[in-house]
Predict the 3D structure of the following.
Amino acid sequence: MITQHLPILQVIVPLLTAPLCLLVQDRRFAWGVSLAASWTAFLIAALLLDQTLEQGVISYELGGWPTPWGIEYRVDTVNAFVLLIVAAISSVVLLFAQRSVAKEILFTRIPLFYTAYMLCLAGLLGITVTGDVFNLFVFMEISALSSYTLIALSEQRRALTAAYQYLFMGTIGATFILIGIGLLYMMTGTLNMQDLSQRLPAVTGTRTVETAFAFLTVGISIKIALVPLHLWLPNAYAYAPSVVSAFIAATATKVAFYVLLRFMFTIFGVSFAFKTMPLNFIFMVLALAAMFAGSTAAIFQDNIKRLLAYSSIAQIGYMILGISFASVTGLTAAILHLFNHALMKGALFLSLGCIVYRLGMANMEQMRGLGRLMPWTMAAFVIGGLSLIGVPLTVGFISKWYLVVGALERGWWPLAVAVLVASLLALVYVWRVVEVAYFQAPSPAHAGEIREAPRSMLLPTWALIIANLYFGIDTSLTVGVASQAARQLLGVSE
């Protein structure tokens, strides 16, 4: 039955689509086949999540080699949830992409764009589904190299600098991760995650394992863009094509965060990560720094893409803060925010894509009076902004509520206050955009010329906005899955 092969199909479908886009060299064909592949990946992810919720962990052995000798794809509630959000965001972004890509990328490069996009998607899904640490590194490099290409395809010259900066930092991160994996292999003789988790306790007292832990933590933190290792992110988001900004912002750092969860909780275990090594205290400090530094920097940005980029740095802080609690509620909040932030940031970057389509840029000055000229686009931006702040009835509120509850469970009320204060900073930078768009007169150059974005771009944007509202009201799926995933990671019975 084909359902037995869903884990490998999750990766194979987009991976085989990539060379097809390049060989045919037709932009409409490339878009159509990429869209079909992405929606197929979404359907597979939904089926995998359903199977894991009903049957438990799925183990898929590649090439007939039994684990731990061969490569294993292993799907549990944690990575099935991440697979679902990555495939969903990709599918919605591709619906949006046809007009946006035609506007922002050179005509002859469009098939190459979709080739790189499919490779990036295959890499992200591969990272998430694999149960082998070296295989994880390979997929990480596939997604990273294609991401650099996607950013560099922008017609803005500064995109090349941004891609190079991202490549430089990403290579350092990947090298650290590879060194960490090599050290673990030297001590245990295995690359299988499940096997590693069973063999590591016998050697956790050694300096080699502690060094591996340090290399992996720093390397993954670069990929996540955790303060102070975040310097690659603002330019990468700001100067990439709008579709790329939306896709990478909503997926790449989320998958890297999943990798951190997998190493900290499945491979090393809670006791080693948070007791032997004082990671919870370090993460708590860095999370607070990210929350306040990211939001403060966002307030002073005139380029709205850079504003949202610094906002992402702050939102990553919330996820890391949830990990630092090392509790079911805190981890539930972190996994919830992974899902919810993908929805809100995807929606915000798509609404900016609509603005760039009409204006050619997304600076504060150009957005004067845009609430009257592009009412549906700006309404989407405002609702996405409210979700970012954490207003009730949006997904942002749910994540922050669980973070506050997690802090109060631990008796750390100052952290609960910090979450609320950081949310008020988000209110400041979202209000700056609202004030310019709704309370200032349109520029004379734009009056009569600027009209609403095409429906083919508005509909995907509003699909994510509606998801922001729906999952902010009906939390049965997201909270239920995140809570079960947190319990699995912590090894806590129901």
Notes: The longest strand covers residues 58-61. The chain has a mean pLDDT of 86. The two ends are 32 Å apart (CA to CA).
